[in-house]
């Protein structure tokens, strides 16, 4: 999550400001700590700080936060879900929470069978379709 905040800050420091922030984030932090409460709390705190920065900068018009699905090698997703969703809902900059769990459930073919949980071509298409549908539903960057 801190890497996303850093990327955002670097872009905001340029003449071209961020208008639409499409992001995921946090699970790399929770994977490293095997989903510990401390790692989940740190991710949520950093996300809230990023939201406060976005509000203060006053250039972002919309945020889409995508939460990856719960997979055996990705720790902390279930714990992050309600906290990130609540923070997103409380943002004064419209923040749209896209939870991929609903779309991944019952579809092992969406994730590579290797130890690294990456989407397959089919999973990537589902991800992209859901992201685009969310953007269309809220008239984001159209």
Provide a descriptive summary of the structure in words.
The protein has helices spanning 2-12, 27-32, 37-57, 77-89, 101-104, 121-137, and strands spanning 20-23, 62-67, 95-99. α4 (77-89) links the parallel β2 and β3. It has 142 residues and is mostly helical. The protein has a three-stranded parallel beta sheet with strand order 1-2-3, with helices on both faces. 51% of the residues lie in helices and 11% in strands. The protein contains six helices and three strands. It has one domain: SGNH hydrolase (Rossmann fold).
List keywords for this structure.
142 residues; 3-stranded parallel sheet; Rossmann fold; 6 helices; mainly alpha
How many structural domains are formed by the residues?
1
Range of strand content: 5-15%
The CATH architecture comes to 3-Layer(aba) Sandwich
Q: Which fold does the CATH topology refer to?
A: Rossmann fold
DSSP E strands, number: 3
The share of residues in helices is 40-55%
Count of DSSP-assigned helices = 6
Order of helices and strands: HEHHEHEHH
Q: What's the arrangement of strands in the largest beta sheet?
A: 1-2-3
Low-confidence stretches: none
Distance between the amino and carboxyl termini: 27 Å
Characterize the biggest β-sheet: 3 strands, parallel
Class based on secondary structure composition and strand pairing: mainly alpha
Q: How would the global form be characterised?
A: globular
Radius of gyration: 15 Å
- Mean pLDDT over all positions: 94
CATH superfamily name?
A: SGNH hydrolase
CATH class placement: Alpha Beta
